[in-house]
Predict the structure of TlpA family protein disulfide reductase.
Amino acid sequence: MNKIATVLVVLMVMISCKKEEMVSKDYAKLSGKVTNVQDSLITISSRNYNKSIKVSDDGTFSDTLKVNEDFFMLVHGTARTIISLKNGDNLNLNFDSEDLLNTAEFSGQGAGTNKYMASKMKLEDEYSLSNPSSFFELDKSQFDKKVSALSTKMETLLNNASDLDSTFTAQETEGNKRFMEYLSSNYDAQHVIFAPIAKGKPSPTFSYPNTNGKLVALEDFKGKYVYVDVWATWCGPCIQEIPSLKTLHSDFENKNLAIISMSIDKMADQEKWKKMVADKNLTGTQIMADKEWESEFVKGYGITGIPRFILIGPDGNIVDNNAPRPSDPALRTLFAELEI
């Protein structure tokens, strides 16, 4: 009897120690395996945090992170996604870098929130939520049908998720509600802007000078697909896309595709623009819009933020009024579908 009591006491102490250890962890562990390794590192970052994790030759990775936020950007080569990570988590992530969105597999402590977020991102991709114009360009009956279907899928996804923090669930519920309210309350005003630039409609045109002062017009590229990059020298995210844009130009230089970079810098900064074009050896066709944000092409597409990428077909009609960025693998998938 004393032996049994002794064993019970030892077990109680062990359990207590394990519980204390779990509570006292001031770090998270992230491990997993990458298929189709693109880089020797995985970067985990947020506004106030940045850490690189080494990826072995066989694609495995593992490290501990002391974090003080909940959500981070994970980047490996061209693959990127948002993950949730808290101190105390022991998260395992396996993915194929060529299709992270559809191949990510989460397990371990902290997997619940990440599984939900991965499914939510797939839903966002399915409904092109990064491009609300895909809603606003629809007629009212199509709009209402699409919004209703999205709302039902969002609610079902959240209700069926497991191991979610109650605060996170409440935030998601409120966030979904606000997004639906945003779509509904802005339809009338936004439909006027986006209906004329829906897929298949004739594209707004342009005729702007290149670095040598020669006018370059959209009609000059009739018969080719035209990928337009609206940018400015002062735009950080625009400049971050330059390496990918140059690679894209190199890869498709002999294809049926013209790449146009349209600066919306002030005319007073024309020399600054020309200098950056020369210094960074920018490729493709470089032109400068005449009136910054008020330029007809920019207004025609309702552009209020940059970078903005637009794909126009060989017939001059719109293929995508908010095309994927050069760094987004979805762009090359789109090009492949179009047989460019």
